[in-house]
Amino acid sequence: MTSHIDNILAAARIHCDTVIKPQVNAWNAAAVWPRAASDQAAALGLTGLYCPPELGGQGLSLGDGIRVYEELGKGDGAYAFALSMHNICTYALCGFGTEGFKAAWARDLTSGRKLANFALSEPQSGSDPSRMLTRARINGDGTWTISGAKAWVSLADEADVYFTVVKTTDAPGHKDMAMIAIPKDTPGLSFGPLYDTPSYQFLPMAEMYLNEVTVSEENIILPVGQGLQGSLMAIDIARVSIASGCCGLMEAALDTALAYANNRKMFGATNLDLDGIQWMLGEVATELEASRLLYRAAANALGTPDGSLMAAHAKRFVPDAALKAVNTCTQVLGGSGLLAPYGMDRLSRLAQMLRIVDGTTEISRVVIGRALKKRAAGLTPLPVPKGFGEE
Ligand SMILES: Cc1cc2nc3c(=O)[nH]c(=O)nc-3n(C[C@H](O)[C@H](O)[C@H](O)COP(=O)(O)OP(=O)(O)OC[C@H]3O[C@@H](n4cnc5c(N)ncnc54)[C@H](O)[C@@H]3O)c2cc1C
User: Fold this and answer.
1) pLDDT for residue 215 is more than 90
2) Do 156 and 282 sit in the same domain of this protein?
3) Residue range(s) defining the domain that contains residue 62
4) What's this model's pTM, rounded to 2 decimal places?
5) What is the pLDDT of residue 229?
6) Together in a domain, 304 and 368
7) Does the residue 384 lie in any domain?
8) 149 lines ligand 1 (CB under 6 A)
9) Which of 87, 127, 202 to mutate to test the pocket of ligand 1 (most atoms within 8 A of CB)?
10) Distances in Å between the alpha carbon of 263 and those of 98, 210, 252, 260, 270?
11) Is residue 235 part of a domain?
C-alpha cells in the first residue's frame, strides 16, 4: 500500500512533467505568475503540506513534505521556491496564528485559493535583519499600524497575504521584532515596479511599501520578542526546501547531459562512451546523492536542537553543488550547452539565485562557524608549541 507522502510525491512528479516542464518557457516569456498552474498544484494538495487535515492541510511532517520541492525543482527552481514560501507561511499560520486569523485564512491558504509570502528583507537589510527600518506602532485599541519598505518580496502583488517581520521600537537588536500578516488589499499597502530578473521572469518580485497600514491584533503570527527567532525557524525550513529544490535542478541538468551525450556521435562511438565524460557526470551523480542525503537529514532535524545547523549545512553545500553540476553538464553538451532549447542557462541562473535567497551561502558559513566555535569551547585546549606567541 502506498503512503500519503508517496501519493503526494507522485502528484508533484506528474505536475512537474505535465504542467511545469512543458510551460515554463512560456511562463517566462509572458513574465506573469502562472496562477492556473499553482491552482492545479493546490488541487493536488501541494499548498497545505504541513497543516493538519482539520484546517484543510495534508498533515505531513517537514521531513516528508520538503521532498515535494525536489520533484517540483526538476521543472523549475523558482516555481518550487515560491510554493515552498507559501507552505512555510501557511505552516506558521496553522501553528502559531490566532484562532481568529486561522478561522479567516487557514482553509483559503491550505486549499491554495489564496497565496501567501514572507516579507523580511529590506533595501538596506538583507543578511543583517537588525538594520530593519519597518516599524509597527501598537495602538490603544490593540490594532497595529505599520510603516516601512520591504525588498525582494516574491509573489509581489500576486500573493493575497504577506507575513511581514517588523520592529516595534527603535531600540537596537531583535528583542522587539514580531511577525504580522498583512492582507494585500489593506489600505496603505502598495508595490514598486517589478524587478527585471532574467530566467525566472514569471516570479513577480518587487519592493513592498507600507504607509500607515493598520491591521487587527488578530493578524499577529509571532508576538513581540519572537519575531526574529520565529522568522529564523521559518528560514531554516526555507533553507532545506531550497536544498531539496536544488536536487531536482541537479537531476534535470544531469538528465539533459546524459540524454544528449548518449546521442552525440564522436570518435566512433558516443560522447557518453568517453571515460572523461563519464567521470565528469559520475561526479555530478555522486554530489547529487550526497546532496539528497544531506537535505533529507536536515529536513528530519528541523525542530530539534540541531535543526538550524543542519539547515545551514544543507544550504551551504547543496546550491553550490547544483551550480557546479549545471556548469559541468553545460560543458558536456559542448556548444549546444549554450543554446536556449537545452535550458542549461536557465538552470545555471536558478542555481545562482538559490545560493542567495533565504540566507546566502556565506551566511550559512557564519552559522556553521558559530557552531564550530561552540564546539571548540567544549574541547580541552591543545597546548600551542613554546615560542608560538602564547600569552
Ligand atoms: C530571487 C529572490 C527572491 C527573494 N525573495 C524574498 C522574499 O520573498 N522575502 C524576503 O524577505 N526576501 C527575499 N529575498 C531576499 C534574500 O533573502 C536576500 O537577497 C538575501 O538574504 C541576501 O541579502 P542581500 O541581497 O541584501 O545581500 P547583502 O546582505 O547585501 O549581502 C551582500 C554579500 O555580502 C555577503 N555577506 C553578508 N554578510 C556576510 C558575512 N557576515 N560574512 C561574509 N559575507 C557576508 C553576502 O553573502 C553577499 O554575498 C529574495 C532574494 C532573491 C534573490
Assistant:
1) yes
2) no
3) 4-115
4) 0.97
5) 85
6) yes
7) no
8) no
9) 127
10) 58, 55, 17, 5, 6
11) yes
